[in-house]
């Protein structure tokens, strides 16, 4: 609902519906990346009551992740490519899930059962998803400045 209100307000400013939808997806992408980071931080702390919150974050994060991917693909790309791109995203997620066993073997073997270094590295790795909302935001700003330059040029002519 909030996305549609934002889209209508953006169209009053002069944005196209596609630009407004892209701009509205930035918040969803940012919240998903923030949930990934919070989940990683909570999973790194060995406290049983905190693990309940970690489980809830994991469930909510999964729904945001898959819903956000589907939403962004439907907004940013033509609909004829949706199935291919969604399948590619799901396949990449499955490939990263395969890294679970090597991490587990690393903790039990080389690190002697202490997962601290793996947790720190995975938490730092979970900062990477913040690049995507920033990239989409900068793309939207660039398109808006180009649109404003075209309007200014049209009015001055």
Automatic annotation (TrEMBL):
Gene Ontology cellular-component terms listed: membrane
Superkingdom, taxonomy of origin: Eukaryota
Residues annotated as signal peptide: none
SUPFAM superfamilies: MFS general substrate transporter
InterPro entries reported in the protein's UniProt record: MFS_trans_sf (IPR036259), SLC43A3 (IPR027197)
Protein's cellular compartments: Membrane
Membrane topology field: Multi-pass membrane protein
Keywords: Membrane, Transmembrane, Transmembrane helix
Residues spanning the membrane: 26-46, 85-110, 116-140
Protein name: Uncharacterized protein
